[in-house]
Give the backbone structure.
Amino acid sequence: MPKKVYTGTVTKDLMDKTVTVAVSELTQHPLYKKTIKRTKKLKAHDEKNVCKKGDQVTVMESRPISKSKSWVVIKRTEQGA
């Protein structure tokens, strides 16, 4: 089974080697057909501490690294302002 890959924005970078990434997606309500924006907050492992708040990053699913961290930053797509 392939690993999930998401693109999101770094919202917090205060922890050592960990960033919080907000991943949002647009889904349609099954009954009312209204478009809903849903946001997930993922904790991702950033080995070199290069990601800063506001950066666009790509994260990939991995084995559990800690209690709440099971994602790894693959690359930093865009630098934040």
Q: What stands out?
A: The chain has a mean pLDDT of 95. Residues 10 and 21 are 4 Å apart (CA to CA). The chain is about 0% helix and 55% strand.
